Amino acid sequence: MKNVAVFGAGRIGRIHASNLAALSGVKLKYVFDPVPAAASDLAQKLGAEVASIEAVLADKSVDAVAICSSTDTHSDLITRAAAAGKHIFCEKPVDLSVPRAIACGEAVKAAGVSCMIGFQRRFDPTFNDASRRLLAGEIGTPEMLVITSRDPGAPPVEYIKASGGIFRDMLIHDLDVFRWILCADGDEAEWLSATASVLTDPAIKTAGDYDSTAVTIRTRKGRLCQINTTRRAAYGYDQRFEVLGSTGLLQCGNHTPTEVVQWNAKGITSDKPEAFFLQRYAAAYKLEIEHFFECLQSGAPFRTTVADGVAAQKLADAATHSANSGQPVQF
User: Fold this and answer.
1) Strand 115-118 and strand 87-91: pairing?
2) Coil, strand or helix: which one is 317?
3) SS3 call for 222
4) How far apart are CA 38 and CA 202, in angstroms?
5) What is the dihedral of CA 281, 284, 288, 294, to 10 degrees?
6) Which residue in 97, 117, 272, 306 has the most C-beta neighbors within 10 A?
7) CA contacts within 13 A on the Cβ side of 150
8) Dihedral sign, CA of 41, 43, 46, 47?
9) Are the C-beta atoms of 80 and 107 separated by less than 8 Å?
10) In angstroms, rounded to a whole number, what is the distance separating the alpha carbons of residues 185 and 219?
11) How do beta strands 142-150 and 189-197 pair?
12) Cα 290–chain centre separation
């Protein structure tokens, strides 16, 4: 039985804590949150105890921690957990600063522990099957990737102010998908151009951010990727991509609450896409936590590491610079 603690009892912390509590061979022992009522509520629901960070890290029976707290706490908690000999699952990003993210990787390596970064889209059954089929050669050599990633609405402006910007907060997932799908053979970005606007809420501009973006990437091998994103899609959470290869196309569409399609004299109707990421990626969140513990048990490498987090952060920084300056970035 492996004992685990969760840092963070907010929206994503509750998802991971619930999945951990349901895993065979894993005991959710502690929950920490800077808001005591949130920690107490979650711990009570899942049969865990409320504890401080210091108490969690001092408890030698705790094998691993799941860091689900705010982004500005990630690097500190990774470093402290590594020093305490705990294995680590951390939600993206590692840190908003690339040098600090790199330092986290060095701390993890020096401590001899394992650290997985939560890029959950790599565990989505639909996306993962596309990756498997791509690697199996079903569409020949990959040449172009088109990603559509649209939120149903923007988060609160106070969140946006501390998020690091849309490229680091939202597009970092899509930039990781780019590397996962188009660069599986070791290819990497060579050139990137990004442009962005504020089209949905002037308050986002006041906060120093954008809500609509378009990114184009060219790899060293000449492959192309286009990513379009917005903070507002009136019809739901829009998550699609397609990869074009030399002999065909793999296309991943949206998920809907049901697959019922109604046909009548007025037209054809179906459900809108899932409401938001907690619904769309429910299976992915469950599978990534299972993967974390399976790898700890077997010694197999994680699919998503600190190095992947650093690479995605570098792309996000480049996209931010390109959008702000109006100039492309050469790597």
Assistant:
1) parallel
2) helix
3) coil
4) 32
5) 160
6) 117
7) 19
8) negative
9) no
10) 12
11) unpaired
12) 16
Residues paired with 145 in a beta bridge: 225, 243
Q: Shortest CA distance to 306 belongs to which of 84, 173, 117?
A: 117
For residues 37 and 307, what is the distance between their CA atoms, to the nearest angstrom? 35
CB 67 within 8 A of CB 33: no
Please tell me whether the overall predicted TM-score, pTM, comes out greater than 0.85 for this model: yes
| Helix, strand, coil % in the chain, rounded to nearest 5 | 40, 25, 30
> What's the average model confidence in pLDDT over 241-246?
98
Instruction: Give every CB contact of residue 252 below 8 A, 6+ residues apart in sequence.
Output: 126, 127, 130, 240, 241, 242
Q: How confident is the model at residue 1 (pLDDT cuts 50, 70, 90)?
A: confident
Cβ neighbors of 262 (< 8 A, separation 6 or more) are 268, 269, 270
Tokens of 170: 């939202």
Interval 85-143: pLDDT, tens: 999 999 999 999 999 999 999 999 999 999 999 999 999 999 999 999 999 999 999 99
- Give the neighbor-by-neighbor strand order of the sheet with 212-219: 248-252, 238-245, 142-150, 224-230, 212-219, 189-197, 329-330
| Cα–Cα distance, 288 to 90 (Å, whole number) | 11
Q: Is 71 in contact with 164 (CB distance < 8 Å)? A: yes
What are the DSSP E strand ranges found in 8-104? 26-32, 49-50, 62-67, 87-91
Residue type, 317: D
Across the beta sheet with 2-7, the strand order is: 49-50, 26-32, 2-7, 62-67, 87-91, 115-118
